[in-house]
Amino acid sequence: MAVAAARIIIKSPREIELMRAAGRVVCRVLDELAGLVQPGVTTAALEARAAELIAAAGGQALFKGVRHPQAKLPFPACICASVNEQIVHGIPNDRPLRAGDIVSVDCGVRLKGYCGDAARTFAVGTPTRPVQKLLEVTQQALDLAIENVRPGERWSTIAKQMQKLVESNGFGVVREFVGHGIGQQMHEDLKVPNYYDRGERHADFELRPGLTLAIEPMVTAGRIAVKFGDATGWPVVTKDGSWAAHFEHTVAVTADGADVLTDGR
């Protein structure tokens, strides 16, 4: 059976600026939550503050109400707050964060019809050296991808470099969850993996000016196998219980390289 080609949606300069405006709200949320993360704070408190900031900006939380075939209920929150072995889609709750934990906060906002999406992993208190390395390498994988975005490049070439960086440091790259195209919808056609697989060459694509992507490496300290972590079907956790980190930016491809739309500019 033939595989349908992904629909590549090129954005105009006006659309990219609208996405940047949504990205500023996302950045504002993550900046503020970074200052709130400390021992004793709950992820429910982070959720409440995020909801206030998004509403004050006139935005819509992208994640709230999203449905997934594996999940028993629509996603109930504005942010994903994934703690320790949770990779993505953690539901904010009343469990206080403890010193030494890590929490990955993913935030998506639609503003005036256009979307921004970004994530950061925060240490709660002072992390151990191995955990600090996990966070640094995951951030480096995102930085490497952004540095290598340029017209004419194949995404697979960048993904291969990301995978090499992560694995050379003793970590693993999650396969089941990847980045995506983004624009008027949170998820546009393109899948943006953080690894290279010859069997998925049909899904590779060439970077072109006006293409907008959510690039989001998810990295594990142990094995890369995942499972759904509770009865809701939402949190995705490492099968071996190892911790995971997640960093993400929304990026536009320009004639000169990458334009990060969720860095607050």
Q: Total number of helical segments?
A: 4
Low-pLDDT regions: none
CATH superfamily: Creatinase/methionine aminopeptidase superfamily
Quickly give the CATH architecture.
Alpha-Beta Complex
What is the highest CATH level, the class?
A: Alpha Beta
Order of helices and strands: HHEEEEEHHEEEEEEEEEE
| Count of discrete domains | 1
Widest beta sheet: strand line-up: 8-7-9-14-15
Percentage of helical residues?
A: 25-40%
Characterize the main sheet: 5 strands, antiparallel
| Nearest-integer average pLDDT | 96
Q: Which structural class is indicated by helix and strand composition? A: alpha+beta
N-to-C terminal Cα separation, in Å? 45 Å
- The portion of residues forming beta strands comes to 15-25%
Which fold name corresponds to the CATH topology?
A: Creatine Amidinohydrolase
Radius of gyration from the alpha-carbon trace, in angstroms: 17 Å
Q: How many runs of DSSP E, i.e. beta strands?
A: 15
Q: Which shape, going by the Cα principal axes?
A: globular
Describe what you observe in this structure.
With 265 residues, the protein is of the alpha+beta class. The chain has one domain (13-260): Creatine Amidinohydrolase (Alpha-Beta Complex), CATH 3.90.230. The protein has four helices and 15 strands. The strands form four sheets. Strands 8-7-9-14-15 form a five-stranded antiparallel sheet, with helices on both faces.
Key phrases:
single chain; 265 residues; alpha+beta; Creatine Amidinohydrolase; 5-stranded antiparallel sheet; 4-stranded antiparallel sheet; 4 helices; globular
